[in-house]
Task: structure prediction
Amino acid sequence: MGELKQSWVTVDSSSDFSIYNIPFGVVNHNNSKKVASRIGDFAVDLSVLFSAGLLNNLGFIASDFEADKLNPMMKKGKSGTRKLRNKIQELLSDETNKAEVEKSLISISNISMEMPIEIGDYTDFYSSIEHATNVGTMFRDPDNALLPNWKYIPVGYHGRSSSIILSGQEIHRPKGQQKPKDDEPPVFGPCKLLDFELEMGFVTYDGKPLGDSISTAEADDYIFGMVLFNDWSARDIQKWEYVPLGPFLAKNFASSMSAWIVTLDALEPFRVAGPKQDPAVFPYLEYSGNKNIDIHLEVQIQPEGDEASTVCNSNYKHMYWNQSQQLAHHTVNGCDIHAGDLYASGTISGPTKESFGSMLELSWKGSRPVPLKNGVERKFIQDHDTVIMKGYCEKNGKRVGFGEVSTKVLPSK
Ligand code: CA
Result:
C-alpha cells in the first residue's frame, strides 16, 4: 500500500474516497444502473472500463458490471474482487490509459445511489461490551449487568432484510403496542421512544455448503466489505414485545445503510488489537492477529430547518467480539452463508458518555436530555429529525471512509 501512487484524479485530503479506498456501489446515471467504484467526487463506471478492454483477464464478464446489484460480481469471491480493486487502483494512478479511464468518470452531482446489494439474510449481533453493560445496568442489575452468556457467545439474532433501506430514504414513525405503565394495560399507537443504533455492517461472499463451518482464520476470506448501519429501534415497542423471543416489530420497520461498500482490503491498514477477552473463549472463537478496526464514528441529529448537532463520537475498535469471531460463531453449527448476506455489529458504544451509540444510552432512558445546538434538546428522535452517521479511518495521512448514512423520520402513516 505504501508504494501506491497518488491518483491523477484530484482528491481533497478530507475526502473519504481516496485512492486507498476504491469502494464498490451501484449508481444511477441517466436512469441506467451501473456497477461503479468511486474516487474523490467521481463515480467510476466499471461497465465503461470493461467495454474499453481495461478489465480483461480478471475473470469478469460484461453483465457483472451492467447489473443493478453487486451480487454477480461478488460471486467471483475475494480473489476476484481483490484483483478488480487492484486494477482500478492502477488505472486511476498510472497515467498509461488515462484518456480511456477518464471516459468512465461521472461527477457525483450527476448520479444518485442505488441499493448496492440484493441482501439475502440479515443478522444483528450485540457485540459492544459497553452497550450491553449500559442496557443491562438500566433494565436489570447494575452489579450484574451482563447476562451470564455474554462473554462466552457473540450474541445475535436473525433480523429481516426486506426493510433494509439505503441512506437518503425517509422512514415513517412506526406504530405498535406499548405498555408505558406497569400497572395498566398496553396501548396502541405511534412509537414515542424512537431511537437509532450506531452500527457497522459487513457483507459476505458465498460461504461453504450447509453443514460446514468457517473458522476465525478463514473468516476474512469470506467478508467482502463494510457499510455504516443504523439499526432503527422503537424502544417502547421493544420493551413490551421482546419477552421471551427477542426483537420483532421494534426492529423490522427499517434499518438504514450507507451506499458504498468499503472492502476489507481497504480497511486492512487500520487494524488494531481488540480488548482482552476474559474468561478465555472456546477454541473455535480463538483468533490470531489484530482483528479490530480503528474506524472513527459520529452521529448527528438535524432537526428540520436547523443545524446538525453531533451527539456521539464512538469507534468500531471498541468491539469486544470481532467480525472473525462473529462469522465463526454464526457458522459453527453448520449454518450456510451466501453472497450478499449482511451482518450488523450491534450498537457501538465506547467507554465515555459521549461515545454511547444510541439515544437510550445518551439520554439514559430519557432521564438526561441530550443538548443540541440553538437551545434544542432531545431524549429520543422526533418527527422531521434527520439522523446522520459518518465513519472514516485515518492513518499516516491516508484516509478511507464510508461517507454517511442519513435518514429522515416522518410522522406515522
Ligand atoms: Ca442492533
